[in-house]
Write a structure and sequence with these properties.
With 144 residues, the protein is of the alpha/beta class. It has five helices and five strands, in the order E-H-E-H-E-H-E-H-H-E.
């Protein structure tokens, strides 16, 4: 499958697991330059190593906690320094309440901390991504 990612500059927020990691692998396989961002450098390092082992190219890991106010600036500066511009932004972030499903109330699914983290994952990159392709895969029930 050719999705035209060859030569594209791609930032994937939430790139160490799940949909974000799969997006990074797909874009890397098609020849995109990729930065994967997540808050845990160990998870990022593992994800980058997994992608490199499969495709022979390593995405650049960037430790960044999108729940912090300085996250937008950190993401933006990394993109500007590395490439000067961005072609693709993927935000694959979210979280979950650690509990058995049967024990969760309706209010738990609207937990403000999780909603805030999800919203910030989307907004963090959008202010500098105008003219870019933006893909959001947001959830409040994903891995947190």
């Amino acid at each position: 499958m050719d999705l035209n990612y060859k030569g594209r500059r791609s930032l994937i927020v939430g790139g160490s697991y799940g949909i974000g990691k799969a997006s990074a692998a797909l874009m890397t396989a098609e020849g995109a330059e990729v930065i994967i961002a997540s808050r845990n450098i160990d998870n990022l390092t593992q994800a980058a190593a997994d992608i490199e082992a499969e495709y022979g190219v390593t995405p650049a890991p960037l430790a960044c906690d999108i729940t912090l106010p300085e996250a937008s600036e950190l993401l933006s500066e990394e993109v500007k320094t590395r490439w000067g511009a961005l072609d693709v932004l993927v935000t694959a972030v979210g979280g979950s309440k650690r509990s058995a499903f049967a024990d969760l109330s309706d209010d738990d699914s609207l937990d403000q901390e999780l909603v805030t983290a999800t919203r910030k994952g989307s907004i963090s990159g959008h202010h500098y991504a105008w003219g870019s392709r933006v893909e959001d895969a947001l959830s409040t029930s994903g891995r947190y």
